[in-house]
Design a protein that fits this description.
Helix content: 40-55%
Number of helices: 5
Order of helices and strands: EHEHEHEHEH
Structural class: alpha/beta
Radius of gyration: 14 Å
């Protein structure tokens, strides 16, 4: 896998730990983690990330709220502070009929590359991330 930076945003300690360890072990990528959208937003404004793996349902700031904030940081002239937004892969346990993948992609077309449902196929996810680095 090409070298790059990855931010895993997931409130579930077990899933976050699994993803961080997988990418650290199986790829040439620098991996950071955040427990919620608020922590992720802080990290994204202090460091450039090529890819973000983003859970939707989190405390303090949801994945959708994070995406709205990230969109503002990249496009709103009054707060613009990021020149190049990271590619975002949304990971969620919510069923497609509750939160349709197409709705998320259409709402954030410049940010969201794909929506993947839990349980994750980590190998398939890694291939998708690799294509973005």
């Amino acid at each position: 896998m090409p070298h790059g930076t990855l931010l895993v945003v997931e409130d579930d300690d077990a899933i976050r730990g699994l993803l961080v360890e997988y990418f650290k072990t199986h790829s040439d990528v620098e991996v950071d983690a955040a427990r919620d959208g608020a922590e992720a937003l802080h990290r994204i404004t202090t460091k450039d990330y090529a890819v973000v793996l983003l859970d939707l349902m989190m405390p303090h700031m949801s994945g959708v709220d994070f995406l709205s904030s990230l969109e503002a940081l990249t496009s709103d002239p009054s707060v613009k502070s990021l020149e190049t937004p990271p590619t975002v892969f949304v990971i969620t346990s919510m069923y497609d009929d509750a939160v349709p993948s197409d709705d998320i992609r259409h709402r954030f077309p410049a940010l969201v590359r794909d929506v993947m449902r839990k349980p994750l196929d980590v190998g398939a996810l890694a291939k998708r991330v690799e294509a973005c680095l």
